[in-house]
Write a structure and sequence with these properties.
By secondary structure, the chain is α+β, with helices and mostly antiparallel strands. The chain has one domain. Helix content is 38%, strand content 28%. It contains six helices and six strands. A six-stranded antiparallel β-sheet has the order 4-1-3-2-5-6. A hairpin with a 5-residue loop joins strand 2 and strand 3. It is globular, with a radius of gyration of 13 Å. The protein starts with 6 loop residues before the first strand and ends with a helix.
Length: 133
């Protein structure tokens, strides 16, 4: 992640997600995809990973459009399952976000096309897409 680009981290409690049917990373991304239409966040870079303390899973976004970061936070905050599974605090930014060992998880290209390697991001997107059919 580049510290000079606007960013936000969405924090999920691994302990709260433990009893869900899917892996906590997949479930976290699924909640995100249920919250935010990808077309609204075209041009974002995606990151994720466990925090250093291993109790929290973070999904992070970077975009040169700072308004997009605020919109992501608002949309996710309104998802009923996010309130059930979020960590405390639910969002993180700045130095607290940049010190975490996050890895690149993909990007959202123009028109909301997801480009992600074979990981929990792609798995969650496939689950979400099948639900929409």
């Amino acid at each position: 992640m580049i510290p000079t680009i606007p960013s936000i981290g969405i924090q999920f409690s691994i302990a709260k997600l433990y009893d869900e049917p899917r892996a906590y990373g997949t479930e976290s991304w699924l909640i995100f995809f249920e919250s935010v239409p990808l077309a609204r966040i075209a041009g974002t870079q995606l990151f994720h990973g466990d925090t250093d303390d291993m109790y929290t899973f973070i999904i992070a976004f970077q975009s040169i459009d700072g308004r997009m970061i605020s919109e992501i936070q608002s949309l996710v905050s309104n998802h009923p399952r996010f309130g059930q599974f979020c960590a405390d605090p639910p969002f993180v930014s700045g130095p607290a976000l940049f010190r975490e060992p996050l890895t690149w998880a993909g990007r959202v290209r123009a028109a909301g096309v997801l480009e992600a390697p074979d990981n929990c991001v792609k798995e969650a997107w496939e689950i979400f897409s099948k639900r929409k059919e």
